[in-house]
Every structure is written in C-alpha cells, then in structure tokens.
Hints:
The chain has 710 residues and is of the alpha+beta class. Helix 2 runs parallel beside helix 3 and helix 12 packs parallel to helix 16 (673-688). The protein starts with 11 loop residues before the first helix and ends with a helix.
Amino acid sequence: MSAPSPAPKLPVSLVANPRLSSWIKFTGDGRVAISPGKVEIGQGIVTALAQIAADELDLDISRIEMIRATTAASPNEGVTSGSLSIQQSGRALRHACAQVRQRFLAAASERLGVDASLLNIEDGTISGPGNIRTSYWELAGDVSLDHEAAAGTIAKSVARRAIAGHSVQRIDIPDKVFARPRFIHDCALPDLLHGRVLRPDVSGAKLIALDETTARAVPGIVAIVRDGGFAGVVAESEAAAEAALKALRKGATWFAGEPLPDEDDLAGFLKSQPVETTIIDTRGAATTKKAAHTLRRQYTRPYIAHASIAPSCAMARWDGDRVHVWTHSQGVYLLRADLAIVLELPAENIVVEHMEGAGCYGHNAADDVALDAVLLAKAAGGRPVRVQWSRHDEMAHAPFGAAMAIEIEADLDPDNEIVGWRHAIWSNGHAARPGRAAQPALLAATEIANPYPRMISTNPAAANGGGGDRNSVPLYDLPAWTVMSHRLLTMPVRTSALRTLGGQGNVFAIESLLDEIAALRGEDPIEFRLRHLRDERATNVIRAAARRAAWKPQKRSGIGHGVGFARYKNTGAYCAAIAEIEGTDDIRVKRLTLAVDVGEAINPDGVINQIEGGAIQATSWVLKERIRFDRTRITSTSWTDYPILTFSEVPAVDVEIIQRPEIEPVGAGEAAHGPVTAAIANAVFDCLGVRVRDLPITRAKIIAAMELAS
C-alpha cells in the first residue's frame, strides 16, 4: 500500500503573512496594488513579481502597481537577501493570486448564474456564454480579501502562463533613465532639513570632548546633536550641514581605538584569533584507499567593500513620540526592531518605509544611516531630516565583506585521484544584520551615551545556506570529506553580509584546487569535473558553457582560459563560467561565457542582467578590490584608494539560460560570483603557468608567485 501524499503546505511567506488583503488590493481605477515584503535593490524583483501576479490574475502587466514595502501595511518577509525573493515572495504571491482569482470566479459565477468552469478572465474582465460579463473591479465590493490563504490552491500550469517565462521591460528602469526621483537621495519632503554625523578617522576611536562654538556660528545651522559619543548637525541646506560638520570636526577630541591587523598578513591574523569551531559536514569513504600524497593549499580573500555607486542615505520625521523613517534597508521590519530597542519605543510607534537606493550588494550602511537620521531628527521640531553619508563615511564605517583564509588538503592516490578532502575556513562571521538579536546591530547604537556593544558577526546556519562556510561542502562526488569552519570571536574590522557571503571564497578555493589536480593528471579540467558530478543539472550547465565558449581553443601566447562551477548554496541556481583572459601586461578579462539554470526563469532578460552584473562585479573583486588599512585606520576611503573595474575594463559577457519552467524558480543574483572568480584564477594559470591563491590577482602577486615557483 502506497504512503499517503503529504498534506499541501503554504509557501513560507504566506505562512507568516496569510491574509490575502495584505498582498493584493483592487483599486477603483482599474488597477491592482501588489504589496510584497521584499524590496527592490536593483535586482529587478518588482518586475518579476508583477509578472507572476499579472499571470495568475489574467491581467495586462500595465495594470499592476507594485507598492513599496512599509511596516505600516506590507507583509513581513524579513530581509531581501540570499537570492530568495523569487523563491519566497514569488511563490507566496503566485499562490495568493491564484486563490484571489478563484474567489472572484466564484463571485462572478453567483452573480452571472453560470458555472465558474464556463467563465474566462481576460485583462480583468470576466466573461461567459452569451456575452455575459463582469470584472474584478465591479465585484471588488462583494469579494472580501480579508481571509487567510488556504493550502492546496492550484496555480496555473506552465502551459497557461502568458507573461512569466518571457522577457518584459523592467518597471523601475524608466524613472531611472529619465531622472525622475525614485532614489531616496533624490526625494525632497516638504520643509526638509539636512543632517551630517561626525565620525572618527581612526577606527574605533571614541569621542571624549567637543567644542561646538565654531559650528554653531555657521549660517543655516538648526541644531547640533550630542548623545555621548554620537554627534551630528542639522541645517537648512546640505552646504550648511557640510560646513557645520567641518567646523565640528575641528573641535573634536578622540580617544584612540584598538590597533588593526597587518593588511599584508590577513591569513596569519585570522588564524591567530580566538574562534568558534563548527564541523559543517563529514562524509566517510565506503572503502578506505591509501593516499600516496597530500596536496595542501591555502587561499585567501581580503576584506571587500560593498562600494555602492551612491553612499547610504535616510530620512526621518518625528511626530510626538512617533517616528517615520524612509530607508533603502533590505529589511524594514528588522530595522524597525532595532530602532525600537535603541529608542525604547513600542515597535508600533515606528513606521519604516522602503525607498530605493543607488546600489546595494548586501548589508551596507543603509540601516546605520537610518538610525543617524532618527537621532538627528529629534532636534528638528517635527521637520524631516535627510542624512547623507559621504564616500569617506561609506568606505570607512559601513560593514565590509569578511576576509577569509581557506585551507584544503586533498589526499591523492598514486594516479592522483582524490581519496580524501579536508576543507577549513577562518573568517569573521558574515552576518550582523539588524533585528536578529537582543541588542541592536546599528553603528550609532555603539556611540550613544548608554551604548550597546558592537555585535560580533555570526554565520547563518548551514541549513539556511551558511555564512563563512557557504558552498564549502563539495557538490562533487568525492569519496570522503571533512568541512570545518572557524568563526572569529574578535572583530577589529566591522563585517557583515556581502553578496555571496563565504560562497565566493569557498568556490574559488575548491575550483582552483580541482584544476591543480586535473593538471597533475594531465586531464582536461572540464572532463575532470564532469567525471566527478552526478547531478544532471550541474553537468548540463558546464557542457552548455563549454559549448558556447567553444572550449578549448588552440593555445595562444598571452591568452588563457579557465572554468569555474558552483550551485549557489548547493541548493540554488547552477552556474558555470568560462573565462578568457589576456596576460601580456596586466591581467585583462576579455570574455566571460556563462550558463545558468534557475529553474523557471520568470523574466529571462532579468536573469541575464543579474548574471551579467554578478560576473562583472566578480571580475572587479578578482582583479582590483581590497580594503586597505594601516594599524590605526581604513585608508581606502575614495575611488582612488579603492579602485573598481572601469567601463573600459569590462569584459564581454555572454549568458545562456537553461530554461526549466517545470521546476520552481530560484534567484540569480549571487550565482555567478564564485564560478567567475574561479574561472579567472584558473585562466591566469593557463596563461602564465603560475597559480595565484590570494585575491585580488594583481601584478605584484603574479610576480611573487613567479618568484616562488622559480
């Protein structure tokens, strides 16, 4: 007797927010308001979600109005991160819209006296035999959506979807192209004031004295705010705020902070600190084969900045004991939770509303600047205050992506086949987002008169994708392995979530060592990978990328080719990359060819955009990006000191999507970084015959590798 089918379950975001009316509202102008809890941070999520809603409701996409997330009305979907928006919000919205469609069909059936199976919906008009008709908007008064979603609703089959699975124009792009104010930096509320916050140049320094005399004399100054070590200015104009801040800085006295590590020996620093050690995964061999020798390699990546094109910005306005905050935070409810702790207010007294920011690649300073704005706005007499961080602020005080040291030992038999694998990671934690602990994770919370301690970054659980250990468990069919993570319990350099978390570093290490082993065997690196993979979707993306890149062309002097592969978090999108580099002078990436499998690609053009963007960002990380510091301060506080890839250096990027509409969709935003990093590193070896294991791959590191090899 076969086991009974499992009971149907609601998507996770609907479990947390089951009321249909919190997701969908029919407005009187023939439009539908869709209110997800995920936010637009440049990844095109508002467009993909609009496609899903339009498909399930049988509407033209032009009728869909996407509402920005706000704690006043939107469902609480936590944080927009981890390439989970389509998986979580998309599934919830598809289910909710399918259920709303059924409720309206039932109401139309009752009104028109026709069985619901005979009714059809086209662009919101419900019609049946004999030209009878009504519409969503005619029925809206009779159909209550104040009901909880029920499990078991059947969404449209793939064959009946007319919009999802097809490329459509991004909803958010026209405003950005035609310079209409969409970014928070461009928004001007009535009676807006401008704020700036005083922060030290020396890392971790504490404000111990402040002479405000000169700053108070600046024309246009409204208030100087001081709360323990937190200080800032509020002024009528940005120019006045800048002038007052400059004057205030001259009157500040600081107590020096703790020394920073040696930036040229990050591996030594990471391995010397107290750590929390976790066994991530183990696998025992069915039969024990004796190792002839062990290949031991260490790989490192530096601290990396989010380096958004615009620094962080927020607005706040007080009304009695209530405050409204406008922010480009990735998690409005989580930010509200931390603000409530710092302000000692009930959460319901705080409204946090999302507005787009110009760039976001993880937990940058968006949440920090929100608290800055709230604290300064207390002195504004009910007027709104906008706080804009400077480039220096952003590059010196925002959280960074954590540095990593990764050691892998591969036990090899006499034929250089892998018989054992040990992977160890040393890194700060990769997550210190707001709203996840009893203490706030916001910068100003550590500076006020009654300060909270700086939160030591943690790692998400391995079941949730992990942090420093992300993508560290091999997807390859190796006979045995042990994967171990050492999370630092000290944090001289502030770290939190940066795109991929530890995934980029771990994929770089794994894929680099696999290439070394393939070279020892004299085996083509793609064939070597395919031989160790049992997952058909994995082999398909590698074969697709190889075919599209015409792997492997005849060897040419000064040109190298390399491959990299990963499945993001081992549960998300599959991606393979082929890099073609030129190494006659500096390393230049000429072309990247990628294949990706995200299951159902809701908006194929959007998927391609995300893979292209990730590939280009990864190229910048591999060749250029590195937080610089001496023993007292961060020194890479400008684009000159923290160079990123320029337009003239951007490689050609060619992307192939393996469309699988029958498989639930996953996100694409972080899938390319690890494979591209590894592909470039492997191409450098193919070109120059030296292996650079420390990112970024610069001329100096190539020369050092050559000297070591000789």
